[in-house]
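Quick one:
INPUT:
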């Protein structure tokens, strides 16, 4: 993917679209991409393109969107993170073509999208996104929304990344690939811009945790949007390491570190990272 850091730095949620349909070439590329978007959990995430008019779909925060993409995953352990990982790969691919997206988990007529997908009872659709070209100016509604969630802000490094335990902030890693990949995690999008990811590096492994904000982002039908966020963070970390020439692997290897009560272990990344240069 062309200059991953630049893609991640320049991607912003797009809620105001030009109204133009995707060019046939772009639609073809998206159509090819969504056929198979793997994730490290080996859980299939199945994408569908949905035409707004044909299915009478809408979202109160969007305008001018010519198309939607929605995806389904079978409910189960790690389904939310798998969904987040695969869907974020599509978000970044779309942006590499100049196609805007915004993760939508709440502000939509959910039942209409689920019906359009033909969702089965054992499946869930945590989020959908519009796909289209950004309008030249954001709507007033979108500007207000961005202010409301401080969409341009991100937490500082010291609140997110730790060494051995959740009290000791991580010094910037000597290996530039690891430093860049963590910055990519920091810049990732999240539900209500909560940035619930926390990472502890211990014995050369990178342990990812969800800092839960109560249970308000969770339900059987939608899944846990903050676990979806963790899938997004893992996606950025893994793609970032690969971009830096590493070969990361994602495993479930809870190190049993004592963490605050609202942290939940999600997954571990190991890679051939040089600890000191
Ligand atoms: C899992 C998830 C769910 C989201 N749900 C919504 C939503 O329902 N409505 C909305 O307008 N934005 C939604 N967002 C977009 C976030 O508000 C946005 O990513 C965040 O404020 C950061 O802004 P940015 O994407 O421009 O960097 C969601 C984002 C994620 C990752």
């Amino acid at each position: 993917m062309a200059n991953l850091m630049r893609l991640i730095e320049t991607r912003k949620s797009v809620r105001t679209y030009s109204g133009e349909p995707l060019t046939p070439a772009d639609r073809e590329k998206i159509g090819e991409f969504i056929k198979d978007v793997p994730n490290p959990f080996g859980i299939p995430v199945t994408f569908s393109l949905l035409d707004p008019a044909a299915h009478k779909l809408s979202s109160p925060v969007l305008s001018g969107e010519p198309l939607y993409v929605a995806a389904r995953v079978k409910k189960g352990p790690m389904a939310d993170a798998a969904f987040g990982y695969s869907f974020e790969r599509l978000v970044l691919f779309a942006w590499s073509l100049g196609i805007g997206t915004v993760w939508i988990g709440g502000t939509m007529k959910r039942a209409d999208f689920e019906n359009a997908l033909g969702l089965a009872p054992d499946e869930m659709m945590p989020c959908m996104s519009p796909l289209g070209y950004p309008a030249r100016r954001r709507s007033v509604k979108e500007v207000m929304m961005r202010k409301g969630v401080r969409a341009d802000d991100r937490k500082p490094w010291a609140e997110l990344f730790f060494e051995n335990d959740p009290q000791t902030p991580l010094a910037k890693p000597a290996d530039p690939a690891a430093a860049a990949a963590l910055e990519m995690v920091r810049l990732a999008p999240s539900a209500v811009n909560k940035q619930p990811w926390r990472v502890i590096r211990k014995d050369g492994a990178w342990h990812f945790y969800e800092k839960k904000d109560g249970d308000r982002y969770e339900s059987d039908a939608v899944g846990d949007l903050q676990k979806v966020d963790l899938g997004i963070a893992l996606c950025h970390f893994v793609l970032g390491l690969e971009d830096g020439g590493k070969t990361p692997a994602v495993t479930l290897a809870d190190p049993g570190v004592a963490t605050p009560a609202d942290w939940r272990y999600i997954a571990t990344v190991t890679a051939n990272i040089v600890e000191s240069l």
